[in-house]
């Protein structure tokens, strides 16, 4: 099998070969049982006849398809095929939902044991509860709230009797006149619960269950308890044991999916801080610190199960750099967020690749277009393709011809239909805005005159400027920037910055949402910095009104020193200019067209030519409202030479892909990994799962 006993060079999937553009299919291919592997392969998407570089899918519910997937990956060794899971929350295994319920299949978990859910502080029944009753009396209402709850009987010793439990939904709480007890209206046998049963007063605990709001099913997605000391089932297993075995067990030799390229933890990542809760099952509440320690252990064990050559994508959490090596990047999924999410994506991707010791793989896709953005359907995808190529992400492809065919033009060099046609990257994206004057001035002496620290002071140390805490530790250490805007314009703030705290472990801190003293169309969002690497952090504002002494504040979380190698403000959009062996990519996020001088941006390149596109198959079926998008796509990709490279127009919210004279990359772009070593494993190593839970391959 492909993934057994590999040397580093034995197998290099396309996502790790360093050639672009990379393509992806998000949850692509058949999910239901296929009648044969030939049929399964026939209906698996291959846009333009090409197997995508990265493909994700929900495959755990149709084990009969596993042999087809294994064979398909073996036939296409450049493909990285990953299994999609939801890690943070879900509803109990084998829960039966009402027919027609709208839900995400990923919300089904492998959790059966009631102690494997996060619950709140418990109270006790003050009166017996019989199986037919829809009201219960509790000794204290303070620990309960409307929503899901867990009822568990206790033994004579006071331990929880996990065989006697029931999930209910609290519909209302009527407090007693004494202000302590309450009568609770409940829905019995809720959300995968066993049948309603009798419970005794005093010997029964009741606890509310926090639930994940990132779902269409109110109250049904419960948080999995990853705390290292969470209650264990009768086989001695924690929730982490159950989830790790379910996720990576099939990827082991003989497991049925040993050729799979990794795991995608999507749709509700492990990013919600649940806060204080009863993580250890003793009825009292603890800090969420033990939950997050358990999350780290969960990621560590997934990485151990996957090995170093598979990918594990999740949300981009810097605390787990040694385990996660990519993201299901929904930061580009909501363009209606005025491309704020794009700003975050640019910042996060660049610093992630600098910090991470692991090979990098990420999928990005367009989703949830507004009505206005739907009229820009093709260029929204072209913009995605541009950002994906520049940042090293795999761009999700739409299936089909007609309008969807136009969204894939740049990924396969137009009519040439070549994958990875750009070749290797020549380095991190360039920022053409930096070629315009710095509105703060030149050199630290001049720049300092246009900045005012608050609860801090500025000190020059060699070529660096350091913001040091000074004054009361109240609010935030702040650096206010001042500059003039002569007309309505986009502007971007660039920092080359890091936190300075001399700690061995990786520490991150936020730069809070900056405020701007003039009105604007779309504003900046918060950023993050680390103590391990200087990083370019940008704050992009579109359509700022003119003004003198415009104020832009940078508020830093925590009080450690902040070190700057540069600070600049440019009255220009935050365009990206990205150079590859066989061409260049220009990306313009502005609401206005931008003219770029390629001779200045890429002084050693020449021979620029637009890609060549033709009318798509099914042109006659394209709705008239999209015809301007068709015209634009064919105009941008007209196959003509760029005769005036010092005045290349890139339309608003758009990207341009050009071929150019070939240059050869001297090697992979060098980025020094500065991440600290991974933390030691916790001492709560789980026992091996019982044989009954071992996943085996389906028969051919």
UniProtKB/TrEMBL annotation:
Biased amino acid composition, Pro residues: 675-700
Superkingdom as given in the UniProt entry: Eukaryota
Biased composition (Low complexity): 664-674
Region entry Disordered, spans: 662-700
Name of the featured protein: Uncharacterized protein
UniProt organism field: Ditylum brightwellii
